[in-house]
Amino acid sequence: MLSIVEQDYGTPERTGDKLVTLTIDGFEVTVPEGTSVMRAAALSQIRIPKLCATEQLEAFGSCRLCLVQIEGLKGLPASCTTPVAQGMKVRTQNTQLADVRRGVMELYISDHPLDCLTCPANGHCELQDMAGVVGLREVRYGYDGANHLDAPKDISNPYFTFDASKCIVCSRCVRACDEQQGTLALTIQARGFDSKVAASQDAPFMDSECVSCGACVQACPTATLSENTLIQKGQAEHSITTTCAYCGVGCSFRAEMQGEEVVRMVPNKNGHANHGHSCVKGRFAIGYATHADRIVKPMIRSKLSDSWREVSWEEAIGYAASELKRIQAKYGRDSIGGITSSRCTNEETYLVQKLVRAGFGNNNVDTCARVCHSPTGYGLKNTLGESAGTQNFDSVMKADVIFVIGANPTDGHPVFASQMKRRLRQGARLIVADPRTIDLVRSPHIAAEHHLQLRPGTNVALINSLAHVIVTEGLVKEDFVRERCEGDSFAKWRNFIALEKNSPEAMQPITGVPASEVRAAARLYATAGNGAIYYGLGVTEHSQGSTMVMGIANLAMATGNLGREGVGVNPLRGQNNVQGSCDMGSFPHEFPGYRHVSDDSVRHQFESAWGVPLRNDPGLRIPNMFEAALDGEFKGLYIEGEDIAQSDPNTQHVTAALTSMECIIVQDLFLNESAKFAHVFLPGSSFLEKDGTFTNAERRISLVRKVMEPKGGYADWQITQLLANAVGYPMNYAHPSEIMDEIARLTPTFTGVSFARLNELGSIQWPCNAEHPDGTPTMHVGTFVRGKGKFLVTEYVPTQEKVNAKYPLLLTTGRILSQYNVGAQTRRTENNRWHDEDRVEIHPHDAEERGIAEGDWVGIASRAGETVLRARITERVQPGVVYTTFHFPESGANVITTENSDWATNCPEYKVTAVQATRVTQPSEWQRRFRKFTDTQQSLLKSAGADVFAGK
Ligand code: SF4
Ligand code: SF4
Ligand code: SF4
Ligand code: FES
Asked: What is the predicted pLDDT for the residue at 1?
């Protein structure tokens, strides 16, 4: 637990070996060169008054409150902008300084409302504090002259208010938006007395470029920019540090609390993944946790056409267990399975796979990573030896060239995108490979030197042609390859990649990318210094997803871009705990730590720890579960925190499989799409209601801390434990820390991880063991995890999903900043104000050909199904390509995606679907059926009574 107000040292930390010693008010202080006098003083607990300075931003020197006297220097320099010097002698207090500071404050206060007692910043207002610090006792100018006291409020943003009457024009907000967020939405308009903060061209915040990250709100030293929750509820009385439950960046936050109520989420400046920054989701979109739709009572029913019935926990768990046992007795041991969640904690995920392996007696456990990053695991394991990204996020600050492939960081991983943009503004160079013109291609002060706008489905053709240039133009880092990689695999790969068929010229008709661009991009990546690759689902969700991951690893090895800071192969994981759910043994063929179930010594270790014999054959993957269900062989499923009915491809196939099962147990917050097919509903807990850990895209394990009691009565790990005991496999953990202790005992890469160490270090990047007791920020230093790096031949094999006269367009999918995944959480927040429906993006040429205008209803038909979305006409997509997001169930994006999948991992080919688009006037037949089914299920839910809802 932290105190509410954290010390702010005024200017950013400087690191470096060279130290400087100076004297401040008679005390000797030694700090790294480049440190400001203000920070040096603060480090010695000498507080110099300040208003425009904060340690999150570079010094600006505008308020003149922090003036000091420095021996030998004329005048009174600002301590925030003055760097320390060896032997410097500083005085922070004397009569002259006190007079000047009081004068400055007097001017500020003469144009400031004196409503401190009713002001939302009362108690944490820096202006108020400074008036006290400098001893302001009177304002000689009076309050009658020209002033800004009637300036209007901007309440357009649903999460914060801009009250211009309180603004002191310190520019902290403007600099936060520029430096921290990188959106550059704010400016100081006009000069002198008329100067004021303006969003865009003096627009309301909601109509400006603002993306509602909240950095300006956090930076504001007054109540000018305030969270609405703070205005409504007043200040918090305690805070608890926890980890965001949205994306794979894994930002650390202080949940500021009044009792069990969250007043606001404040990004933790000591958070190793986010350094005090956040996005609109993590900071503001937590209202879903207390939303009226939340179901907080267990429920059961026998058939999908039955009403739900509220029951006790004992009855629900007892019924679920008896059904699972009945099904196994009737249909065999393999007729049931479980699905773990990338949204739940490591400990919860570990327990679900343990329940399946030890309690159900099979390996039928899978996770949603099946449908996103399973190719990452496969591709990186086979080339580099470890199924994870190679760097920490901070590594990007040492990259010279950044290559973003099939990822949209500003929407999917916003806080990391801000850091990446900071590095790009410092001069790193940028290559983007994406069918769509993502924001990063061109944004304020940033432009990709090469946008390789390939056709969907041609990733491997592109990566091969890039590698071809590197191999045939003598750009291979021969010494790195000789020393670090397998010689024969390299020779085989080199011979293959040098073939003319892999040249950019030969691949151009396939990828659609001009050969000259490919050649220039390859040269840049190979020669510009540190080359860092960041990739996303645009790489993995293809029929050749694993091949592409291997192609990326090949490229990085060939150019020596692995094993140090500033380089690497970095999968940007979508959900908060995708990395962790994979690490915890969620795949049917692997125990925790990616060890195959057929490995006798590993299995014996788990058998002796868990006290039961374990199966040595891989269980069913999610798509195989569906197939087996439709074949009548798979009848029972326990789903913790996933919504397969919305997120898996070919919805009609999925729902047919779900309908054919006899007992589906859904453990979740809401009656999600999958729960509409369930027989048992167990109310899950939000991240605010439990202890545990998440592992982000950097392999960083961070603590999730309980800030309130579970609304349904139990945390998810406790519910799994109840179910395990009821099916006859005893589990008796008293706290998630005990589960982590067991994980550490059984998983070599986690040996040194414990809640105590996490509390001590803040977070830990695995591997963490005797060799790396504090974790491993950079992987593969000196040697690859598998020993020598292995090059693998990556033959381009076109997808079977081909355009033809009937389906002439290619649909690709992605996500948007304000919504998250299936939207179950963000759709229940004010984030809908930014995005309240999924739309289909279509190029003006394709739209015109079809008579489609902006906002028209467009039928999108594929070989799998049809749905209807409204059109957004944009040149972001190239001709022949359409694009949509998948955050709203009624959009039915997955009604049209097909069952094509990655050859190695079955990861669905979400990114390539051949479709036709036509102007229509009514919803698709599927959408009409969906609405009817949803209405029926909602009324069956209502029959359970108002008590089952959080908002009763
Ligand atoms: S809004 Fe706040 S941070 Fe921005 S200039 Fe005004 S007082 Fe400073
Ligand atoms: S909320 Fe973020 S994007 Fe919006 S103006 Fe503030 S800093 Fe800029
Ligand atoms: S970037 Fe991701 S982890 Fe960070 S606040 Fe936003 S959603 Fe949460
Ligand atoms: S704090 Fe130094 S000039 Fe404002």
From this structure: 38
Name which residue sits closest to atom 7 of ligand 2, judged by CA: 177
Query: pLDDT tens-digit profile of 156-177?
Result: 999 999 999 999 999 999 999 9
Q: Return all residues near 536 (Cβ < 8 A) that are at least 6 apart.
A: 405, 406, 407, 408, 409, 412, 413, 571, 572, 574
> Which of ligand 1's atoms lies nearest the C-alpha of 172?
3
Dump pLDDT digits (tens) for 860-880.
999 988 999 999 999 999 999
Helix (H) or strand (E) holding 505: helix 504-511
Distance from the alpha carbon of residue 167 to the mean position of ligand 2, in angstroms: 16
Tell me if 62 CB under 6 Å of ligand 4: yes
Atom 1, ligand 4: residue with shortest CA distance: 50
Nearby residues of 212 by Cβ (< 8 Å), 6 or more positions away: 157, 159, 160, 205, 280, 284, 818, 834
What pTM was computed for the model?
0.93
Pocket test for ligand 4, best of 56, 60, 68, 168 (most atoms within 8 A of CB): 60
In this model, does residue 284 exceed pLDDT 90? yes
Taken in order 796, 801, 807, 813, is the CA torsion positive or negative? negative
Q: Which has the higher per-residue pLDDT, 218 or 952?
A: 218
Q: What is the pLDDT of residues 81-106, one digit of tens each?
A: 999 999 999 999 999 999 999 998 88
Is any ligand 4 atom within 6 A of the Cβ of residue 53? yes
Q: How far, in Å, from the CA of 102 to the mean position of ligand 4?
A: 14
Q: Alpha helix (H) ranges present in 617-730?
A: 622-630, 644-647, 651-659, 716-727
Ligand 2 closest atom vs CA 184 = 8
